TrEMBL record:
Residues engaged in binding substrate: N14, N67, G77, N78, N166, N199, E217, R218, G227, T228
GO biological process, one term: lysine biosynthetic process via diaminopimelate
Assembly mode: Homodimer.
Organism: Thermaerobacillus caldiproteolyticus
The entry's keywords: Amino-acid biosynthesis, Cytoplasm, Isomerase, Lysine biosynthesis
Record field: catalytic activity: (2S,6S)-2,6-diaminopimelate = meso-2,6-diaminopimelate
Name of the protein in question: Diaminopimelate epimerase
Known EC number: 5.1.1.7
Domain of life according to the entry: Bacteria
Organism taxonomic ancestry: Bacteria, Bacillati, Bacillota, Bacilli, Bacillales
Annotated signal sequence range: none
Functional pathway: Amino-acid biosynthesis; L-lysine biosynthesis via DAP pathway; DL-2,6-diaminopimelate from LL-2,6-diaminopimelate: step 1/1
Length: 284
């Protein structure tokens, strides 16, 4: 196998190289290094990582996501919307609402279609995991990690930690344009208190149903958007009394807006766009 077909797609500028594993075969041992290679803007295709659309025994499709550093993530909100779009448009599913398997469990997607093209997708991301051990984060077990003080590089910060199947830590800032994304982000990403690493989000609260958001992603660095991160930011904002539960909250990411609701029943719903950029053949 010296080549494979791919589709480059993005959700609010968070782009991945998607490979249809119903049609392609790539050895497991090659996946991590391939994710690094295809993500490279100079010698590869250029993206925030690689996503495999795989057969599943428990759902019509399974999503596997690899960051641009080759690490495998357990969930990806922008990726899920693009996988749902791809699956519907390529007849891997024949309903507009269907399950997708991820490494952090099953999620349910609903596609919205105009003239046969999926323009936006709602994903029921399931329930956030809030216990310290579920993030995971080291320290005394706690039901929630909310407004906890931590010291980083000699400075004291207040953090809130949420897992959407992948780990997130949220810092609130007064001005999103001044958020220390590229200075504090990489330090916290690798902080030993997060044994699996962590996605680092910065949030400015506009009002009780609107947030500004920037992200330093685990394994990919600065991205235009992070769907699971935006979900984590809404959950954290409810826990901190800054936004309301069961209310649609607009999250303004660098690449555009997501609409997110954490319902009283406990599930987090994310709605946003998914777009195809191009298709091609990658030569290994
Ligand atoms: N960097 C993340 C995976 C991608 C998540 C993000 N792109 C999204 O849309 O949720 C992690 O290692 O947990």
């Amino acid at each position: 196998m010296d080549r494979f077909s791919f589709t480059k797609m993005h959700g609010l500028g968070n782009s991945y190289i998607y490979v249809n594993m119903f049609e392609e075969t790539i050895p497991e041992s090659l996946l991590s290094e391939l994710a690094v290679k295809v993500s490279n803007v100079h010698t590869g295709i250029g993206a925030d990582g690689m996503i495999l659309i795989c057969p599943s025994e428990v759902a019509p499709v399974k999503m596997r996501i690899f960051n641009s550093d080759g690490s495998e993530g357990k969930n990806c909100g922008n990726g899920l919307r693009c996988v749902a779009k791809y699956a519907y448009e390529h007849q891997l599913v024949n309903e507009r609402s269907f399950f997708i398997e991820t490494l952090s469990g099953l999620v349910k997607a609903e596609v919205f279609v105009e003239d046969g093209i999926v323009t936006k997708v709602t994903v029921d991301m399931g329930k956030p995991r809030l216990k310290r051990s579920e993030i995971p984060m080291l320290g005394e077990e706690a039901a929630q990690v909310v407004a906890e003080k931590i010291e980083v590089a000699g400075e004291t910060y207040e953090i809130t930690a949420v897992s959407m199947g992948n780990p997130h830590v949220i810092f609130y800032v007064n001005d999103i344009n001044q958020a220390p994304v590229t200075t504090l982000g990489p330090i916290v990403e690798k902080d030993p208190r997060f044994p699996e690493g962590v996605n680092v989000e910065f949030v400015e609260v506009v009002n009780d149903c609107e947030l500004h958001f920037r992200v330093w992603e685990r394994g990919s660095g600065v991205t235009q958007a992070c769907g699971t991160g935006a979900c984590a930011a809404v959950v954290a904002s409810v826990l901190n009394g800054k936004t309301a539960r069961n209310q649609e909250t607009v999250v303004h990411l660098a690449g555009g807006d997501l609409s997110i609701t954490w319902t009283d029943e406990g599930n987090v719903f994310m709605t946003g766009p998914a777009e195809t950029i191009c298709t091609g053949v990658y030569y290994i």
